[in-house]
Amino acid sequence: MAERRDTPWWERGVIYQIYPRSFQDSNGDGIGDLAGVIARLDYVAQLGVDAIWLSPIFPSPMADFGYDVADYCGIEPLFGDLATFDRLISEIHARGLKLLLDFVPNHSSDQHPWFIESRSSRDNPKRDWYIWRDAGADGGPPNNWISDFGGSSWEWDEATGQYYLHAFLKEQPDLNWRNPELRAAMSDVLRFWLDRGVDGFRIDVIWHMIKHEAFPDNPLNPAWTPEVRERDKLIQLHSTDQPEAHTISVEMRRLADSYGDRVLVGEIFLPNDRHAKWYGTPEQPQVHLPFNFQLIENPWDAASLRQIIADYEGSLPAFGWPNWVIGSHDAPRIAARVGEAQARVAAMLLLTLRGTPTLYQGDELGIGEVTIPPERMRDPQHLREPERGIGRDRSRTPMPWNDAPFAGFSTAEPWLPLNDDWRARNVAAQSADEHSMLRFFQKLLALRRSSPALTIGSFTLKGADDEVLSYIRQAGDETLLIVLNLSSQARRFATPHGYGLGDTIASTLARSDAKTGTVAADEGVIFRLTGKH
Ligand code: GLC
Predict the structure, then answer these.
(1) For residue 475, what are the CA distances in angstroms to 5, 321, 453, 479, 494?
(2) Which residues are the signal sequence here (predicted)?
(3) Which pLDDT does position 385 carry in this prediction?
């Protein structure tokens, strides 16, 4: 892939996801809030990221912790108010950072006034803002669709004698994006926040937004086994990724572009060919960054990674900018999945691949598996399908800031337990230790910022070793070789043909001996390459 020159901020920058319930509590209720985020902005700036994506902060009954929105243009009182939000955005901008909000357009809360009206009678003007259907021929749900959180996607409403659709919890009714009034109301929501100065949005489950007009049954998934989520019994052929959803994406992009330098990031889980369509075309662009979760979803070995990187790069439209994600509030912690040593390798991979990286709060400390006693589990997805042990709480535990009571996160017992090792694994301790994960992240982020090769350079995969992943990043006269040893044994690597091996710029280890053509067990290294002969 060739080097790019004309680059907007969101191509060069790094996005940092803040889960506001768990970042910093300022008022002693055990739940993080906006004033807490403000108090920690210097930390974010010093980390060396460019933009903050804030998970939902809107009024919400919290059935799905903010992804059930009861008012798209307000601030949840637990988190603060609009005045605090305005202060947050100006403090963010004062530090040269950007702010992306989490827009949740597929569904609202069942407590949203729109839904309360919609369910009040069949002829209410807002009835059609949600998706209502008569019962099927047998008196059951209108079709076989399964909610992402298990069970039917349809909930019976006794009072009006119809079912409504919910792709997630029954407390999250799906909005009807075929209705022009709803569409106009949602454009007003985007304008409301853009006018307040936000730099863009992460758009929740964007590929869910329109359903097949005739609501046919989804086909059975022949690959399903009982260990897998109930949702995956069916292929979501008719309930997601409909062609009409792309027209919404075009409209949202047009609106964002009318404000200048803003960015839209779409949450999308699809195979490459369909995923790439969410970029749109140069004439009709859609989201700038369709989130790419492949590092989370695939096995952690060099052969698999090489394959997914090659396939993904190969699937991008010529004008499409790549992006990579390694953790989120929905996924297991990377350090829990691959171990602490490989988590450093993962950090190096994330920050040296071509494309915008998204980093999730706490991963910069290497937080790993967290013990959550059953009585403290809160994730509604887990509580509905507990037998699968798929809880998302373990990646949502509060940020450990120091070794004071409750890790400096709060003055009260936090809503979720802290990571077990918070007394040692916290921001203060890691700031003081030059070999810590946090200092490693800071170093890599600074290196990335200063290196055109890493931010906008070309990308070429090298080597064919099953344990070592290597690639070249190049811009101008800067050529870098990245060698990542995915195994727990030392491995030899070859210097790419025609180059000389220059300085070691960074290693995941405190002391690296990599110049000899060998990378140590679990080591990742960035080398400078000297001129091609
Ligand atoms: C997205 C969010 C997740 C939420 C779901 C429903 O996947 O990331 O946390 O539960 O959408 O809104």
Answers:
(1) 9, 16, 4, 7, 21
(2) none
(3) 84
Burial (CB count within 10 angstroms: exposed 0-12, middle 13-18, buried 19+), residue 348: buried
Q: What is the pLDDT of residue 227?
A: 84
Q: State which residues of the chain have pLDDT below 50.
A: none
Amino acid at 470: S
As for how many domains the chain has, the answer is 1
Which pair of structure tokens corresponds to residue 484? Answer: 């990542």
- For residue 3, the model assigns a pLDDT of 56
Query: CB of 256 within 8 A of CB of 287?
Result: no
The DSSP letter of residue 348 is H
Paired sense of beta strands 200-203 and 263-266, if any = parallel
Q: What pLDDT is attached to residue 228?
A: 87
Cβ(207) to ligand 1 under 6 A?
no
Give the pLDDT score at 386. Answer: 83
Q: Which residues are catalytic?
A: 204, 267
**Sign of the torsion angle spanned by Cα atoms 350, 351, 357, 363:** positive
The answer to the question of residue 461 being in a domain is yes
Residue 525 lies in a domain: yes
Contact in structure between 266 and 287 (CB atoms under 8 Å): yes
Distance (angstroms) between ligand 1 centre and the Cα of 330 equals 7
CA of 265 to the centre of ligand 1 (A): 14
Extract long-range pairs of 82-89: CB within 8 Å, 24+ residues apart: 84/33, 84/34, 84/35, 84/38, 85/34, 85/57, 85/196, 86/196, 87/38, 88/34, 88/37, 88/38, 89/196, 89/197, 89/198
Percent of the chain with pLDDT over 70: 98
Which of the 8 DSSP states describes residue 366? T
- For residue 469, give the CATH number of its domain: 2.60.40.1180
Decide whether any atom of ligand 1 lies within 6 Å of the 330 Cβ: yes
Asked if residue 465 belongs to a domain, the reply is yes
**227-254 CB burial, b ≥16 within 10 A, e <16:** eeebbebbebebbbbbeebbebbbbbbe
Task: Give 214-237 pLDDT, tens digit per residue.
Answer: 999 999 999 999 888 899 999 999
Question: Does residue 361 belong to any structural domain of this protein?
Answer: no
